[in-house]
Specification:
Pfam families: Cupin_8. With about 325 residues, the chain is an alpha+beta fold. About 25% of the residues lie in helices and about 25% in strands. The chain contains 9 helices and 15 strands. Bound molecules: 2-oxoglutaric acid and fe (ii) ion. 2-oxoglutaric acid (AKG) binds next to strand 8, strand 10, strand 14 and strand 15.
Length: about 325
């Protein structure tokens, strides 16, 4: 992927994510309909507005943070523990553990030497210093709790803290939780795709360490391998301090940090519990994604290897479901 300060050209056509004020009566409808929006003026993370490198270095305490280090600007997420299919895969980023003070000093060093890139990504917990805890308690939980209650979402699972050098990229992927993504400092550009772009974005298989990530390199798309990527249609949002982006579950997103230092905190929530009687047919695109994952998981567990799953799916589909259904009917009617 390209780096530097130039404006990155996304290969897909993009429209803008609507910006909606916190007091707008349509806000909850957007979220209920699972449409991404940028919520403004919520003051959700206002109490963290002074979180810069110096402040965090002083107040984060001695706890350890997960920091990814890479020679490239692209930080593809991977998890070897999820490698149930025993795929051969070498991550480009190294996962390290360090205090915030160590991170801050390596950050400054790397900004000068430009020989490596660092991205801190850590779930916030109560091991951070008391001043940060106070800022965290000062988040606008009153607003958030009311919204989450009105939406009937499940519980808050994680507040991920992202501290990034300029022009780093989290490549296109989807998560399985609802996300309020709050920009604290600096600017981020987020590209989003509706879950019905699944066939255009070619996720790695379930059981691969890069599960839920697109295989398409957005800087150099291989249209021969991934021909439907041409049909992908996205949305884009520029997030500045105070903006909160709602990323609905199973929506694809690619995130680029733009300036000196970017600090973001997300709020990952479990979706409303799926009660069998409440499931409406036909399924929504995100429910289909969830169903595909369940099927892939079941097949990998039952058949034991990625190769067996491949053979099984081919046997199921070849000459049967990969042909035009009407064509088959016409032939039968003759
Ligand atoms: O900010 C980033 O780099 C990634 C954020 C993200 O993927 C998320 O919050 O789900
Ligand atoms: Fe994500």
């Amino acid at each position: 992927m390209s780096g530097g300060g130039e404006w990155w050209q996304c290969p897909c056509p993009l429209e803008s994510v609507p910006r909606v004020r916190v007091c707008d009566p349509k806000l909850l409808d957007f979220i209920r309909e699972q449409r991404p929006i940028v919520i403004t003026d919520s003051k959700l993370v206002e109490s963290a507005r002074h979180w810069d490198l110096e402040y965090m270095e002083k107040h984060m305490g001695d706890c350890k943070f997960t920091v990814y280090e890479s020679k490239e600007r692209v930080f593809m997420f991977s998890d070897e523990e999820k490698n149930l299919g025993n795929y051969k895969f070498t991550p480009t980023a190294t996962k390290r553990s360090m205090t915030f003070q160590e991170f801050a000093s390596e950050f400054r060093e790397a900004m000068k030497s430009k020989d490596k890139f660092l991205y801190l990504q850590q779930g916030l917990n109560d091991t951070v210093g008391p001043t940060i805890v106070k800022d965290f308690v000062g988040f606008n939980w009153t607003w958030l709790t009311d919204v989450v209650k009105a939406l009937n979402w499940g519980h808050l699972t994680t507040n991920m803290l992202f501290v990034s050098m300029p022009h780093l990229v989290t490549p296109c992927h989807y998560d399985e939780q609802e996300n309020f993504f709050a920009q604290v400092r600096g600017t981020k550009r987020v590209i989003l795709f509706h879950p019905d772009n699944f066939r255009c974005l070619y996720p790695y298989r379930y059981g691969h360490p890069c599960d839920r990530q697109s295989q398409v390199d957005f800087d150099n798309p291989d249209y021969e391998r991934f021909p439907k990527f041409k049909d992908a249609r996205g949305l884009e949002a520029i997030l500045r301090p105070g903006d909160v982006l709602y990323i609905p579950r199973c929506w694809w997103h690619l995130v680029r940090s733009l300036d000196e230092l970017s600090v973001s905190v997300n709020f990952w929530y479990m979706s409303p519990p799926a009660i069998a009687e409440d499931i409406r047919f036909p399924l929504t695109a995100s429910q289909k994604v969830a169903m595909m994952r369940n099927i892939e998981q079941m097949l990998l567990t039952a058949l034991g290897s990625a190769g067996e799953v491949s053979d099984f799916l081919r046997m199921l589909v070849s000459g049967r479901y990969d042909t035009d259904a009407n064509h088959t009917f016409r032939q039968l009617e003759m």
